Amino acid sequence: MAMAQRNHYVPEFYLKGFCSENGILTVYEKPTGAYFEAPPSRVAVVKGFYSLDLERYLSENIEEPANAVLAKIRSEDTLSADDKVTLAKYIVTMWKRVPRARRRLHERALKVSEELRTEIRAQFSTVQARDPSKEEIVKERLRQADEILDRLASDPPDEVFYRIILSEATPRLVAAAAAMTWVFLVTDDTLPFSSCDNPVFIFERLGIGRPESELSFPVSSHVALWGSWRPMEDRTYLKAPPQLVKELWRRAAHNAERYLYHHRFEPWIPPFLRKGAWRLCRVP
Fold this sequence. Notes:
Blueprint: E1 7-8, H1 12-15, E2 25-29, E3 35-38, E4 45-46, H2 52-74, H3 81-97, H4 99-130, H5 135-154, H6 158-165, H7 171-179, E5 181-186, E6 195-196, E7 201-202, E8 214-218, E9 223-228, E10 236-239, H8 242-255, E11 259-262, H9 269-275
Parallel strand pairs: 5-10
Antiparallel strand pairs: 1-4, 2-3, 2-11, 5-9, 6-11, 7-8, 8-9
């Protein structure tokens, strides 16, 4: 399959929401705290991360429709119900398209391969018990099965990752995200928000469908989405207290696979990232 040359796994338009006035990101590396400055065109880019078809799909079906919604939120404009669905698709796709998602696939592939290995061995053991003369055939089939499972566990096919990214692959996740109550938390330049290379935060043990589930997603340095199932006014803007902004900073640091994005250098961020463990709390 033909591969795109350069792929933003975090979209460039999204990253622009965390740039300085001159269009530059300060990128902090986790866990060292080392940092550098770069334009968003050079950040969150990997050569050949997606196929050409998937890159086109993401651009035309996910990013372009959502960019107008992101611009609305950054201007603190009211979202329509259709806007909410558009952004829900974008958020769920973001969760599935980043390097952390690819690592989740590898972790899941290892677990599934071991489950299948156990099942296959049990089945062949039954065959051999019934007919001991098939011992050599069983050994050969088990060897072949092990080779296939080892290969799948160590390197799942790219096509599996590509299919998972499609919003059509997870309609219930999109529906759940769109059904949550959304509150847009607003802060100023005194204590702005950050983002990272894995921007969508959920408590993974809870998912997003339980009454206590939460979702948070920084939209810019000054606006972040908080989703929950609490009976509140939907799609409203509220001033975020400092402790809530700090909680979203901890979530960004926790979620970051390698990089955290901010619009300026802050001397407290490197030691904060080197800390390496953050106590995460649900929003009170």
